[in-house]
Amino acid sequence: MFDLPTNTSNDIRNYNNFRKFLIKNGYFMLQFSIYVKICTNKDSADLQVNKIIKHKPPQGFIRTLILTEKQYESMTIISGSSSKQDEKIGNKKFIIFD
Fold first, then answer.
1. SS3 state of residue 35
2. Could you tell me if 6 and 17 are in contact, meaning their C-beta atoms sit under 8 angstroms apart?
């Protein structure tokens, strides 16, 4: 999950670069500013967190949350419906939210 400033052209460039980094590394957008990546184990999830730390923009807020598949499946959709991305989760073990 992230909230990055977009006030200046440099901010926008940093935002776009971070978003491209996430997509290039296999994340998909769950909602605006919430990207998800499926990881097979805790070590893989920890590795992703370290990559995010190395590629974080100089300003803004970034948070990660690691969930098991069972925890992810317990999410309640209050408005809207499940998306194609939800189907990609499948039988994976860990989901990392960025």
1. strand
2. no
